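Sequence dictates fold. Below is an illustrative record:

_____
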Amino acid sequence: MPEAAPPPLPLLAAASSPAAAPLQRARRRQQHHQRRGWRRPRGLLAWGALVAFFFVMNWWMFSRLQDPAARPHFRLRRHPPRADAAAASNNSSLSTLEEVAGTAKGKGPHRVMLTRLLALAAHALAEAETRPEPNDLWEEPINATMWRPCSDQRDWEASEGTNGYIMISANGGINQQRVAICNAVTISRLLNATLVIPKFLYSNVWLDKSQFGDIYQEDYFINYLKSDIRIVKDLPVELQSLDLEAIGSLVNDTDVMKEAKPSLYVKKILPILLRNRVVHFIGFGNRLSFDPIPSDLQRLRCRCNFHALRFVPKIQETGAILVERLHGHRSHLSPLKDNLLGQVAVKSAPSTNKSDASKYLAVHLRFEIDMVAYSLCYFGGGKDEEDELEAYRQIHFPVLTELKKTTKLPSAAFLRSEGKCPLAPEEAVLMLAAIGFKRSTYIYIAGAEIYGGKHRMAAISRLYPSLVTKETLLSPSELEPFRNFSSQLAALDFIACAAADAFAMTDPGSQFSSLVQGYRMYYGGGNLPTIRPNKRRLASILVKNATIEWQEFETRVRKLIQQTKQVHERPVARSIFRHPRCLECMCRTEH
């Protein structure tokens, strides 16, 4: 065996020499750092205890806000009962990308992150009650007053409609149907055809059998547009017996591309019309482009939407009651109310007590189960939520269900980061608090049954207790004529939102919100602001909710909203129903 190596004598000897002084000092420094290292955990523990204290305090304060003894202000759908308490605790909405990503890895949602930001909002609202609101909260930028309605002006002769008859059976809810009606009016003028009063397809989502005459005034529609096109209530008797499918006169959405150019109708549809004297469009959802299109046809489309479609007296009368009660019986005639309410607006008696007048904010919470299910986003309900929404998709969106089986779809985290998820009530209330609406703000909530019911609405109802809906403002007898007619109920929401002093949408892609925004833009005279969040940018702010302080959150959200309120002319290809500020629909005046 080889011998063991001898100790390094030269180094041991050197340790006692004067040259070893620097080495000794280095060792002493090392020992000093080691002793300090023993104290470092104590400092970390103290810091952790301080953070935990504030963490617990925030949780406690927000839990007080959600005291279940508080009186609910409206009736909403209650989320289905869960099998156990653990599953029930997952019922809250997500507000950050970390929560979505964490759940995708099998972790539960980090509810404390959302609770922290909501607690900060509660503090901010309490402190802000004595301070004035931001100056621009209830106002549009000054240059919005430069635009005024003028699509009612005509400079052509009426079309005789001699090339045949156009029929449509529109799908979707009241909003999709309204767009289809105005597109059909425009196509009828383009093809010199006579329009038959549109029909509405029954939908297993909307469950509403309403037809055109149940929502809009047929005679007013026909007479108002008689200088543009010819409209009849029924197809002539000699054409009613035709088998339209057999002769090739049925046109489905698969036959006409989405947002098709007018030239396609001239090339493809006009020959069928001339040959068979009738064409029947089935579905007809968004089947006409916004650009390029002749300016006079674009103006006709605006004229149809903003002037020709008036609600039936039953809807006008109940809508007037809603607006009067929301405004504290304040009577104020305007072009908007005249269009929405007609003669009913004139009959409304003015309030004798000015102190009764009040401003209100309308919020469209697009968080019904159909929207939640279709979005493919995750909202914190765990496997119960996933199973429930998948079951809904199988019934109402079978094509989407099949697509999930064969195609790799974007993750919930990606969809949220791209702003593709509807804002949950918890997220919407943070936006409202950040931009400066006081706790005492009177808020009208539009929408159908909110997915998750009162549990989902807890954040808004606790931070903003003055919440109302059409169900709480109207008596059972006033609501009775509209029960089981979702489109007619949506018309009441449309009136309340369009007439509001301020309107906030939570899903800019919603056709309801887009139509309300367009109405307010067209008739508002620069006095009806709309809050339209950029959900992608809002998601990038909410992702920091574990660390962001309220002042920074408030500043960033306000900047985001101010940028979306800027006044500009309609961009190319943008919907005129959503953005009518263009020379085809409105006139611009220089101050």
Q: What stands out?
A: The CA atoms of residues 27 and 33 lie 10 Å apart. The chain is about 50% helix and 5% strand.
